[in-house]
Design goal:
Number of helices: 14
Number of strands: 14
CATH superfamily: Glycosidases
CATH architecture: Alpha-Beta Barrel
Shape: globular
Strand order of the largest sheet: 1-4-5-6-7-9-11-12
Order of helices and strands: EHEEHEHHEHHEHEEHHHEEHHEHEEEH
Distance between the termini: 9 Å
Radius of gyration: 22 Å
Strand content: 5-15%
CATH topology: TIM Barrel
Number of domains: 1
Oligomer: single chain
Helix content: 25-40%
């Protein structure tokens, strides 16, 4: 059967610096937000110091910060990239750890050793025939910027960001053709510290560092990021006209389906979709959507929009839409409050099961498996924005270990990935302009959500465990050769 995947389709995989590099304080790097957290859903390991009058990281704990060593990619990247190239990767997504380049975030001059590491990393990717796909900020805001400035709650962040942006665009001109600004800032409503890079540093909050932010604060912080995103697009096009710069958002929430034909269920599902589309509406359409006006009015949000902000946002929209998709969900008005139905500030979907989905990922996570949800998302985004789409995260985390023969047989991962890729092919037939598919993560890394090694996504196993022990040996799983065959046939193997 002839494949629908186009010539030049970017097959590959995706990771993030904070989940695999390790070397968290090496060669001049200082702490970023995820260095003081055990999973993005957990409170940061940071406390108020009455003597200094500052927030400070605390390392007095009885658990292992796995991200401090990660999988030691910082020292082992050449061998790991060769494993990726062994599958025939055309592209490899990772991120630049902002704190490697500007350790505190507000320095005038960059850290040369940090820049040199990414020179070596990108050169190796290119040598192996892989396009670097680089996220500029992937839950890696320098901790110093949150402690001293409040992060993106403070407009000064735009200047710090632009210093960083101009530095890396000039340094890696000609090496990186595909950039993305912020990773999943739409998750910032739930995890403002990690995903939003925001911290309320007012003294009254010193007992709870990760205190809930007000709607006013969150939307103001997002406005600063929208301006920063537009300025990054402008800088990218001016410094390296051959490069493309996209947005990256979690889009699993787009595949939110009403439980019934009840209009309240339908409106609630629509509200959940708007909750996700708000960000892409701004960064790809260049304006604030009309529906957000009601949310602002009902939550007493009045943005401080400076002269020229909206012109920047309108004139410098992104080149492509990169996104993650893992699962779909169901909206039920029975399980939701009235506010969930009328606006996009919240929603009740987590515990409502879709009776038409029979598979879920194995315990303990048990995410519903919905490959057709990915096709739905692709078509929704293509119709709404008409820009190239890039699937840069999709994968399955499993609790697995080597058997007595030193192997890992992972048929569930193969089935999950095959079924999703078949739906990507269907979306291409539907007319969706899809640039590529980057599986998350092709080598086992520290889980962002839970801060553990037990949740393994990789085609390559890494011998490291939640308590920190392990040899760090890399072992190919069965899925490694399967994905290699898919890539070398440009998708034809999906039909075998």
């Amino acid at each position: 059967m002839a494949t629908a995947f186009p010539e030049g389709f970017l097959w590959g995989g995706a990771v993030a610096a904070n989940q695999l590099e390790g070397a968290y304080l090496e060669d001049g790097k200082q702490l970023n937000v995820t260095d003081v957290m055990t999973g993005i859903g957990n409170p940061p390991d940071i406390r108020w110091n009455d003597e200094t009058g500052k927030w400070e990281p605390s390392f007095e704990h009885d658990f292992v910060h796995l991200s401090e060593e990660g999988i030691d990619f910082y020292h082992r990247y050449e061998g790991d990239l060769e494993l990726m190239a062994g599958m025939g990767f055309k592209a490899f997504r990772t991120s630049i750890s902002w704190a490697r380049i500007f350790p505190h975030g507000d320095e005038d001059e960059p850290n040369e050793k940090g820049l040199e590491f990414y020179d070596r990393l990108f050169d190796k990717m290119l040598e192996l025939g892989m396009e670097p796909v680089i996220t500029i900020s992937h839950y890696e805001t320098p901790l110093g910027l949150l402690i001293d400035y409040g992060g993106w709650l403070n407009r000064k962040m735009i200047d710090f960001w632009m210093n960083y942006i101009n530095t890396i665009f000039k340094r890696y001109k000609g090496k990186v053709k595909y950039w993305m600004t912020f990773n999943e800032i739409n998750v910032g409503r739930m995890i403002p510290f990690a995903a939003g890079g925001m911290l309320d540093i007012h003294p009254t909050n010193k007992e709870v560092v990760n205190a809930d932010l007000t709607q006013q604060q969150i939307y103001q912080g997002w406005h600063h990021q929208f301006v920063a995103n537009a300025l990054a697009v402008k800088a990218c096009h001016e410094i390296d006209p051959d490069a493309k710069i996209g947005i990256m958002l979690s889009q699993s929430g787009i595949a939110c389906f009403p439980e019934t034909c009840n209009p309240d269920d339908v409106l609630g599902a629509q509200a959940m979709q708007r909750k996700q589309s708000f960000f892409s509406d701004v960064m790809l359409k260049g304006r604030y959507p009309g529906y957000v006006g009601r949310i602002w009015a009902e939550n007493n949000v009045e943005l401080d929009i400076q002269p020229g902000d909206m012109e920047l946002i309108a004139n410098y929209t992104n080149d492509y839409f990169a996104f993650s998709y893992y699962r779909s969900s169901v909206f039920s008005s029975k399980a939701a409050g009235a506010d969930d139905v009328k606006n996009a500030t919240s929603g009740a979907t987590g515990n409502v099961k879709n009776p038409y989905l029979t598979a879920c990922s194995p315990e303990p996570w048990c995410w519903p498996v919905d490959p057709k949800g990915l096709r739905y998302v692709c078509n929704y985004l293509q119709d709404r924005y008409d820009v190239p789409l890039f699937i840069v995260e999709n994968g399955i985390g499993l609790d697995e270990n080597l058997d007595e023969n030193g192997h890992i047989h992972d048929p569930f991962r193969v089935e999950y990935t095959r079924d999703h890729l078949l739906q990507v092919e269907e979306a291409i037939k539907d007319g969706c302009d899809i640039m590529g598919y980057l599986y998350w993560g092709p080598i086992d890394v520290v889980s962002a959500g839970t801060g553990e090694m037990r949740k393994r996504y990789g085609f390559v196993y890494v011998d490291r465990f939640n308590d920190g022990h392990g040899t760090l040996e890399r072992v190919k799983k069965d899925s490694y050769d399967w994905y290699k065959h898919v890539i070398e046939t440009n998708g034809e193997a999906l039909h075998e």
